[in-house]
Specification:
Strand content: 5-15%
Structural class: alpha/beta
Shape: globular
CATH superfamily: Alpha/Beta hydrolase fold, catalytic domain
Number of domains: 1
Number of strands: 8
Strand order of the largest sheet: 1-2-4-3-5-6-7-8
Distance between the termini: 33 Å
Length: 361
């Protein structure tokens, strides 16, 4: 979900100056690129631009065999792209799926391709959903596939779930990871949990800062970016983003070694994330899918037991009400919001054992 504000991203990546200088991570990037290279003649490894809803956007496709089913990973944020982190968890998936990473409008490598200010009026959930649907149609035609899998992570889980509701005919199944159902409820429970951890810890600084946020969120009106930023800083400290850790540096620093992202691309991520949060965060307060109680596709939720970035109990309760041809919650007992990198083996096993068999020729 909106797991970090622009100021935290700036601190994590420190890319502004680095984008102007030689990239010190280039030797490491070259090694990772060589290890990750798709050498199977039947495989695919390509990055290309597409125009979706009038905006130019970047897509990366990797897989050992083009005949494998496609899984479209819809990243979180808004603006927190997964393309530069994917090298850390995705490679095993590529033996069984053709995996698509997509930098959404105004995000990551897509950010400098358009006039972002001109994009601002278009940045709504419906537009992101329809961008995803356009992309799915393009992928089906390009790679000769009848349907695809969609995995939505965090903010991307709202986009992905909206795709599943509108165009179930395009999907073999929907997988929600760090699933968001109701943004206002998400913020309410997240703050309550974080404050509870601070009180248990007798952390007077955290208690003081978190209590000063109340009332947050308010019953009506937009969500407050500054209050979110404070809450997230302490939520991260108490393991609500990455379980059993006081930070998620392993995740935030992974892009430095990504073969897909240069220093300039990392700066574009920083810029795009900050812009996306500024535009979208205030309007997210009105987004709720809690009344979506039926889907026409198999639905899986991959939930971290410690996830209080997108609090897992909200998604679990929603799943209990959902009617679908098949549904299942898969729990990751040592994860918070990032199971794909906190428990990569178990994530891969769940995809292989539960999801991939649903792909039919």
């Amino acid at each position: 979900m909106i797991r970090i504000a622009a100021v935290l991203l700036a601190l994590a990546f420190a890319t502004t100056a680095a984008a102007q200088a030689p990239d010190p991570y280039e030797p490491g990037r070259a090694i990772v690129a060589d290890i990750q290279k798709v050498v199977n003649p039947k495989g695919v490894q390509e990055t290309f631009e597409v125009t979706l809803g009038g905006a130019r956007q970047v897509v990366n496709v990797r897989g050992a065999d083009r005949s494998n089913p496609i899984i479209l990973f819809i990243h979180g944020g808004p603006g927190a792209v997964e393309m530069p982190v994917a090298w850390a968890f995705q490679r095993p998936w590529e033996d069984y799926f053709t995996v698509v990473q997509w930098d959404q409008r105004a995000a990551g490598r897509s950010s400098p391709l358009n006039d972002t200010k001109a994009l601002a009026p278009t940045m709504s959930l419906d537009r992101y959903r329809d961008d995803a649907i356009e992309l799915i149609d393009l992928l089906r035609k390009k790679y000769g596939q009848r349907k695809v899998f969609v995995m939505g992570h965090s903010w991307g889980s709202v986009v992905g779930l909206s795709v599943a509701a509108k165009r179930p005919d395009l999907l073999y199944a929907y997988i929600g990871m760090g699933q968001v159902i109701d943004f206002r409820e998400n913020e309410k429970l997240g703050l309550a949990w974080t404050l509870e951890q601070a009180r248990k810890d007798k952390n007077e600084k955290a208690i003081r800062e978190l209590e000063a946020l109340q009332p947050y969120p308010t019953a009506t009106g937009p969500l407050d970016i500054d209050k979110m930023t404070t809450e997230r800083s302490w939520s991260i400290y108490y393991g609500g983003l990455a379980a059993h850790r006081h930070d998620a540096d392993f995740y935030f620093h992974a892009p430095r070694l990504s073969p897909e992202y240069t220093a300039a691309d990392r700066k574009a991520w920083d810029d795009g994330s900050g812009f996306s949060i500024q535009v979208l965060w205030p309007q997210l307060s009105e987004i709720s899918l809690k009344d979506l109680n039926r889907l026409e596709v198999p639905t899986f939720l991959f939930l971290g037991r410690y996830d209080y970035t997108a609090p897992a109990p909200i998604a679990e309760a929603w799943m209990g009400r959902l009617k679908a041809p098949r549904k299942e919650v898969v729990w990751f007992e040592d994860s918070a919001h990032l199971p794909m990198i906190e428990e990569p083996g178990r994530t891969f096993a769940a995809l292989l054992e539960k999801v991939r068999p649903l792909a039919k020729p």
